[in-house]
Amino acid sequence: MVEILAGCRSRREQRQADAELACYQILWPSEATFAAALTFYRRFQLSHGAGFLDCLVAATAAEHGLRLATLNLRHFQPLPGVESVRPYAD
Does residue 90 lie within any of the structural domains? Predict the structure, then answer.
């Protein structure tokens, strides 16, 4: 959700993003998810350039047993227990 809103360049785009996001269930991270994200970050930030928000998204997906759809598989490939897929071909 945050990454989508961060890409908005105007209030109109924010409203459009909010309307689209309303169609989806939001999974809020638990304390355990934050701990797992911090573990990912400590382990992969220096070696792979993993960002904390990517680690948090990945840990949330892993906690719920979900595949993570992303256009940048490289960000998630080193994270163990996280299945990431590209949602569509180029």
Answer: no
